[in-house]
Write a structure and sequence with these properties.
By secondary structure, this protein is α/β, with parallel strands linked by helices. The chain has helices at about 35-55, 95-100, 110-120, 180-185, 185-195, 200-225, 245-255, 265, 280-295; strands at about 5-10, 10-20, 25-30, 60-65, 105, 130-135, 135-145, 145, 230-235, 270. It has a five-stranded mixed β-sheet. Strands 8-7-6-9-10 form a five-stranded mixed β-sheet, sandwiched between helices. The two termini are about 25 Å apart.
Length: about 300
């Protein structure tokens, strides 16, 4: 069964074909332009891949958000996104019309969380969180093996966090200013320090990493108290800064104040990088596609007096 996947990001789209065992057969990166141009390139890329590898049984989309996930005519449309020109864009309809197959959509961080639970750093766990820290900050939550979803998907990147001592930076979130994303996403770090964090050196770099770790630890503390994950995986470009996760763990220990006092929270493996690296999101879209196939499968008929065929 050949599946299509699209990881839709604010700066790039990753298109791939593979299977539900996580095998990636073909992959291509496309720059994020306007919705019409980008989606046309996505469709052309998937058509070329299907012509070479075989027809697609379904397509999974892991999208930057916020995205409407409710069943109905608006499912798959982006909501009030900070990405200019993309609010209201339909990510599902054009793919369904072009290929005539089921299309499943969730956030890119939920896709990554699913993949990490199946093959990566959360394998064997029923409850975990995946936080990505890059152009923005997003969180995917898995509870009892399933993505957490209510009226909308979690938007924990926009939670309020207490300011680090002495930090007067106003934040860059166009909606909230100094939410977690506004204070700690990659562009926020660059705006605060005058250059990307990876270009900083010496004491400025040390201060930047420690402040970043403090904000991320505050976000993780809230996740612990609200969602109670068994592990928190932190990925994305900013998370790759050397020494960052070690400092997140140190700040987290202070922030928790030994409450609720579980040994798991003090384990260095509680906060860890993704086991799949930058393939977590793309592989997760294949799991979304597989779920679309399962939802379309007919229910076996019940046998008379029995419990099903």
């Amino acid at each position: 069964m050949i599946l299509g996947g699209v990881e839709a990001g604010g700066t790039k789209f990753i298109c791939l074909v593979g299977d539900d065992d996580g095998r990636i057969i073909a992959r291509r990166r496309l720059p994020t332009r306007g919705p019409a141009t980008t989606l046309a390139e996505v469709i052309a890329t998937l058509r070329d891949a299907a012509a070479a590898e075989g027809p697609l049984a379904a397509i999974g989309v892991g999208a930057f958000g916020p995205v409407d996930l409710r069943p109905g005519p608006t499912q798959g449309r982006l909501l009030s996104t900070p990405k200019a020109g993309w609010s209201g864009a339909d990510l599902v309809g054009p793919l369904r019309d072009a290929f005539g197959v089921p299309v499943a959509i969730d956030t890119d961080v939920t896709a990554a969380a699913l993949a990490e639970g199946r093959w990566g750093a959360a394998r064997g766990l029923r409850d975990h969180a995946y936080m990505t820290v890059g152009t923005g900050i997003g969180v995917g939550l898995i509870a009892n093996g399933r993505p957490v979803r209510g009226l909308v998907h979690p938007e924990a990147g926009h939670m309020h966090v207490p300011r680090m001592p002495g930090d007067r930076f106003p934040g860059i979130c166009p909606f909230h200013g100094d939410c977690l994303e506004g204070m700690a996403a990659g562009p926020a770090m660059a705006a605060r320090w005058g250059m990307p964090a990876e270009e900083l050196t010496g004491q400025a770099r040390e201060r930047a990493i420690d402040m970043e770790a403090g904000y991320l630890a505050a976000g993780v503390r809230t996740l612990i108290y609200v969602a109670a994950p068994g592990r928190v995986i932190i990925g994305g470009g900013v998370a790759a800064l050397p020494g960052l996760l070690e400092r997140v763990r140190a700040h987290l220990a202070r922030n928790l104040g030994d409450y609720p006092g579980l040994p798991e929270h003090a384990d260095p493996g509680f906060v860890r990088p993704p086991g799949l690296g930058d393939l977590a999101g793309p592989k997760g879209t294949l799991l979304l596609a597989a779920s679309a196939v399962a939802q379309e499968a007919p229910v076996p008929p019940r046998t008379p007096g029995g419990r099903g065929g």
